[in-house]
Amino acid sequence: xxxxxxxxxxxxxxxxxxxxxxxxxxxxxxxxxxxxxxxxxxxxxxxxxxxxxxxxxxxxxxxxxxxxxxxxxxxxxxxxxxxxxxxxxxxxxxxxxxxxxxxxxxxxxxxxxxxxxxxxxxxxxxxxxxxxxxxxxxxxxxxxxxxxxxxxxxxxxxxxxxxxxxxxxxxxxxxxxxxxxxxxxxxxxxxxxxxxxxxxxxxxxxxxxxxxxxxxxxxxxxxxxxxxxxxxxxxxxxxxxxxxxxxxxxxxxxxxxxxxxxxxxx
Length: 266
Fold this sequence. Notes:
By secondary structure, this protein is an alpha/beta fold. It is 29% helix and 20% strand.
């Protein structure tokens, strides 16, 4: 049995986008040391092979478009276990600090005198781009990248954030040549498409990557004007990442460059 911790502590660990081989060494060490693990739905089952046989594993579902464990309950459970002396690991898909609620969890726990450590993981947006073989900041096409949620939730404290102005975002992305990486946009694809079309050309390249980094990963490339239609036609579902921008043109360029001369009509 692992010894109880003297100082209450919770470690927020990023398990990466799905592929268990994308875990960091630091994440593995944290999982091995845990006496209690609170695990999200998107964490691959093989990740838990690193857990101690004596560790308690508690599944706290968090998946877009599905019923989820209330965030307040998860935070209460983390605090309860940490204050009881357990070595608590909150195991999240992707990176805890990118749409992983680590910020609010850290604030809540620290307010109770609980030490918090964050172990970064590979976020799904990066893995989705890797799966396509494109660089989000390819200097021939983009000056930068914006990661944004397509499913804005109201803040639990203070004034709620205003809704995303997709039209303004599109104009900024067009003028500054920025790649958009949209998380949790499956349910709102038609809405965000409508807004983006107010600032981006209809033929702007778009790719949707479902289950990034997993053996069942699949992707669909289209144009912005066809985004919502493609979701319906291909029955795309969560978890999925939407990438918008000219960096996707590089997929065609690379394909031509790798093709035999005869295939290129040379």
